Amino acid sequence: MPYSLRLLIVVTTSLLLSACGTSLHQAPVEDRNPPLPKPAASAPLPAASAASAAEVKLPPGAENAGKPGYYTVKPGDALIRIALDNGQGWRDIAKWNSLDNPNRIEVGQVLRVVPPGVDASTVTAKPIASAAKVESRPLDSKPAVAANNTPANAASSAPVAASSDDDAMAWGWPVSHPVSAGFDDQRNKGLDFAGKAGDPVLAVADGRVVYAGSGLRGYGNLVIIKHNNTYLTAYAHNRAMLVEQDQVVRKGQRIAEMGSTESDTVKLHFEVRKLGKPVDPAKLLPAR
User: Fold this and answer.
1) Domain match, 67 and 135 both
2) pTM for the model
3) Do residue 192 and residue 285 come from a single domain?
């Protein structure tokens, strides 16, 4: 065989083998078995101590909710307002409920609003909502009192003797001025008297001062007197207060001076509360 032919055969064979080598490849492998799902991590079991930690803490006095003689605190409440609406002094309520700070009461807290040992079913107050929005300020630790004006015959921290018939009271008028605005159950919870700044304000009956301060917004400088187990009287918008908290006062005693604190004009706003409920003072005060 000629050399050139043999060379041609060798070259051709080499090319064919090279072509076959480059075209051969491994076919892709198709996995028809899907991967097994990973097991879900199990949630940790609660510890035995978690149950005790999750116990709900009830507000103080919750066990007395709904009972006669108790009051459940609502949003926006303040102790001075609760006391006024239940015919009590705020310090008495603070004492009965062992309140260290009378400015700190919580929604849902249940407060005793009648003295311990008293049959609440016979003296349960009838709170009434005021038509006007009244905000409360912190209770004053020492109410402001006009200097050198405290009556010399005033006693301090003496109890008020409750009469056998709380309705049999000898009433007097708080001022000598005529009534400028009468009682209205929806708009005016008492009587208003126009006057001049500094005119005397008098206690309408014997009693004990249970509040003297400016903690009830809308009333200005306010004096509240507890006369017995049934009646409280309130004297608002004073320029000066001439008595101190817990001071015993007598009918006709000068307790304040007329003013215009939190009022557009000089006036006395006077309220009578019977078991906490506002009543028309004109039906109780004597004829002039």
Assistant:
1) no
2) 0.66
3) yes
Tokens for 182, please give them. Answer: 């009468």
3-state secondary structure of 288: coil
Q: Are 167 and 253 in contact (CB under 8 A)?
A: no
Which residue numbers in the chain have pLDDT < 70?
1-55, 121-167
Q: Is 252 exposed, middle or buried (0-12, 13-18, 19+ CB in 10 A)?
A: middle
Residue 193 sits in which domain range? 129-288
Q: How many CB atoms lie within 10 A of CB 149?
A: 14
Does 207 lie in the same domain as 100?
A: no
Q: Which string of b and e fits 28-66 if b means at least 16 CB within 10 Å?
A: eeeeeeeeeeeeeeeeeeeeeeeeeeeeeeeebbeeeee
Element (H, E) at 268: strand 267-274
Q: Which residues contact 114 (CB under 8 A, 6 or more apart)?
A: 69, 86, 88, 120, 123, 124, 125
Mean pLDDT over each residue of the chain, to the nearest integer: 78
Tell me how far apart the alpha carbons of residues 144 and 202 are, in angstroms, rounded to a whole number: 18
